Amino acid sequence: MPLKENSAFVAFMPSGRRGRFPVGTPILDCARQLGVDIDSVCGGRGICGRCQVVVAEGEFSKHGIQSSATNISPRGEPENLFDARKGLAPERRLSCHALLWGDVVIDVPASSQVHKQVVRKRAEVRDIVMDPAIRLHYCVVDEPDMHNPLGDFERLLKALDEQWDVKGLEEIDMRVLRNLQSALRQGDWKVTVAVHRGLRITAVWPGFKDKAYGIALDIGSTTIAAHLCDLATGEVLESDGTMNPQIRFGEDLMSRVSYIMMNPGGEDHLIESVRRAVSDLAKDVIDTSGVTPDAVLNMTVVGNPIMHHLFLGINPIELGGAPFALATSSGMTMWATEVGLDTVNEDARVYMLPCIAGHVGSDTAGVILSEEPHLRDEMTLIVDVGTNAEIVLGNRYELLAASSPTGPAFEGAQISCGQRAAPGAIERLRIDPETLEPRFKIIGCDAWSNEDGFDVEAERIGITGICGSGIIEVLGEMLLAGILRTDGTIDGALAARSARVESDGRTFSYLIHNGESRISVTQNDVRAIQLAKAALYAGAALLMDKMAVDHVDRIVLAGAFGTHIDPKYAMVLGMIPDCGLDRVYAAGNAAGTGARIALLNQQSRDDIQRIVKTITKVETAVEPRFQEHFVKAMALPHADAAYPQLEAEVPELTKVRMLAPVLAKADEGRRRRRRSRA
User: Fold this and answer.
1) What would the mean pLDDT of 552-561 be, rounded to a whole number?
2) Three-state SS across 506-527?
3) E strands, 356-467, in order
4) Is the bond preceding 14 in cis, omega lying within 30 degrees of 0?
5) 3-state SS assignment for residue 139
6) Domain coordinates of the chain in residue numbers?
C-alpha cells in the first residue's frame, strides 16, 4: 500500500482517546501511549489473543476521517496461526500485529479491556402489583371424536374457556399452531398454554409447566442493562449490563446519526450491533440463571428516541434535524424475531414503551412510570443525566418535558483524564481548604488515598483517571476550596500556596495524583463541565418558566450517572436548582425500573400510553430564553439564581459567592493596567 503521509490519526472507542502516530506503529503501541485500556499477556507475540480490536468502517465527521480496515496492515502469519488455533472473528484483529497505515477509528471490545466497564444499572427494589402480560394455563383437552369435527385448536379454546374462564380468545401464533398437535399427543392431551394479554396463544408445552420469564431492557446510548424476572413472583433472578457497541460509530447520539448520513446503509451497522448486543446480553442472564431460553416469553424495552428507532430497525435520520419527527411515538408490541432477537423464545412478545417527543424517549416514559410525578401534589423535577439529559417537571395537575444537549462530559468524555466508570477511576474526592491537598477514592477500593491499605490496592488496580461522578466532586471541592472561581477559572495566584496549582500555558491546572498516571484537572476540563451543566440547568429553568414556578419541592436524579452523583456537589456546581438536600433523591436506574413495571404489570402499559399523551413537550432548541438561562448558568453555581437552602447547609459556598465580586473587580483592574501599558 502506498503511504502518502508519515503519520496517521487513530481514535479509540469507547474511551474516546485519540492521537496521531507514525505510519507503521502497531495499534497496541498507539493504545498504550494514549493510555487506552487493552489487555495483553503475551507481550505482543500474538499468542494470548486478548488484545483483539475492531476497525470501524465509514466516514466519521466528528474526527474528519474516513475509517477503513484497509488503513491497517492485512493479517499476517501470527494472526493466521492464532485464527487456526483458537478462531479469530473476520472483523477482529490482534492489535499487537495490526499496523497503522491510515486514519482509523478502533473499537476495543469489553472482552479486550483489562479494567472492564462497571455497568451500574442494578434492579431497584420496588413493590409492583403483579399482573403480567403473559399467563400460563394448564389444560386437559378433550380427545378428538369421530362425531365431533372440532379441530385441536378449537378444543383447546373450549378447554381454556371451561377450565380458566378465558373468553374471547381466537388467535394463535402460526409457529405454535404447527406444533400444537404433537404437543397435545406428547402430553397425553394435557398441555400448558401461554396466553398474551388474554388475546393470543404464544406457546404450548406438553404436560405441566409452571414457570415463565421475562426480561426488562434499558438500551442507553452508552450502556445496556437487562433484568431477568420470574413472571409469577416478580423476583429478579439476574441482572447484567454491557457497553453499547454503537459507541464505535459515535460517542453521542448525533454523532451516530451523522455516521448514517455520511455512510449510505450505515443504519444497518448500528441496527445489527445493538440487536446483537441485546441478544448476547439476554443469553448471558439466561445462562447465568439456569433458565431455558424457550421459557422467556416477554420483554419490555426502554431507550432514547434514537435507540428506540434503531432497535426497531427504523432509520433515525429524521431525528437528526428539526422538526425531529418520530416514525412512531406509540407503544409497540412485536415478536422477538421481528427485532432480531435469537436467544429467547422465537414467539416471545417484545413491548417497547412509548416515546414522548423527538428527543424525549421511552426511557423517560419509564422514569415517569417509576417515579409517578403525575400522582403527587409536590412540584417534582426529574433529571435523567446522560449525553442528552431528559427533564420532566410537574405534579398531578400538569407535566412538562424537555431534553437538553449536555454532551458526554458528565460521563468522562472530553475530560483530559476522564474515563468511564471502571476499576481504578477516581470517584470520590475531598480537598483540604488550608493546604489544598486532595484525598480520594477509586472504584474497586474501599479505602481513601490517605488511609492504610490504599497503596497496596492502588498498586494492584492502578489509578487510571476520573469517572463522571468523580469529576463533579473534584470541581465542587475545587470551588469550595477557592481553587476555582465562580466564573470557572482556576485561580493561578494559589500556585504560590500549593504546588498542586500548576501553570499550563496561559491557564492553570490542579494536580490530583502524580504517579504512573498523572491525573490533573485543566481549564479546558472545567469549561467542558460548565457547558454541560449550563445546558442541564437551562433546560430545567425553561420548564420552570413555562410552569410559572420559582422553586421545586423535590428533585429526582435518575439514570446510572445520576445515581452516583452526590446531590451536594451537583447543586454546588449549579447543575440543578436550589432545593433542600434532604429533598434530592437518587432514583437509580429509574428507566429500567419502569421497564420492569411494564413487564410485570400489563395495566401499566395502558397507563403510560395514556399519560404520555397529556405531557407538554418544550423544545429547547427553539425557545429564546434557553440561551439566556444557559449564559447565566455558566457561572458556578449561577450568575444570579439564589441558593439559600444550599448555603444554609454548605456555608463555605456563601464565602465563595461573596468573594466573587471582589475578585472580578481585581481582575478588571489588572486588565485595565495591561491595556494602559500596551
Assistant:
1) 87
2) CEEEEEEEECCCEEEECHHHHH
3) 380-384, 389-394, 399-404, 425-431, 438-442, 465-466
4) yes
5) strand
6) 7-112, 134-206, 220-360, 365-405+539-640, 417-521, 642-678
Phi-psi region of 508 (alpha: psi -120 to 50; beta: other; left: phi over 0): beta
Vertex 199 angle, CA 196 and 201, to 5°: 55
CA 563/CA 400 separation, integer angstroms: 22
Classify domain 220-360 by CATH number.
3.30.420.480
Q: Are residues 259 and 266 in contact, defined by beta-carbon separation less than 8 angstroms?
A: yes
Supply the pTM of this predicted model.
Answer: 0.81
Query: 134-206 and 220-360 share one CATH topology?
Result: no
> Contact at 8 Å (CB) between 105 and 67?
yes
Closest CA to 54 of 38, 65, 43, 41: 38
What CA dihedral angle connects 144, 147, 151 and 154, to 10 degrees?
A: -100
The C-alpha cell 453555581 sits at: 637
Mean pLDDT score, 339-364: 94
pLDDT of residue 320: 85
How would residue 46 be classed by pLDDT, with cut points 50, 70 and 90?
confident
Give the CATH number of domain 7-112. 3.10.20.30
CA-to-CA distance for 676 and 654, rounded, in angstroms?
A: 34
With 0-12 / 13-18 / 19 or more C-beta atoms within 10 angstroms meaning exposed / middle / buried, residue 622 is exposed
Please give the mean pLDDT across all residues of the chain. 89
The set of cell numbers assigned to 278 is: 441485546
* Architecture field, domain 134-206: Roll (3.10)
Residue 404, pLDDT > 80, answer: yes
The packing angle between helices 266-289 and 305-312, to 10°, is 90
Say if CB 67 and CB 101 are below 8 A apart. Answer: no
pLDDT category of residue 362 using cuts at 50, 70 and 90? very high
Does residue 429 have a pLDDT over 50? yes
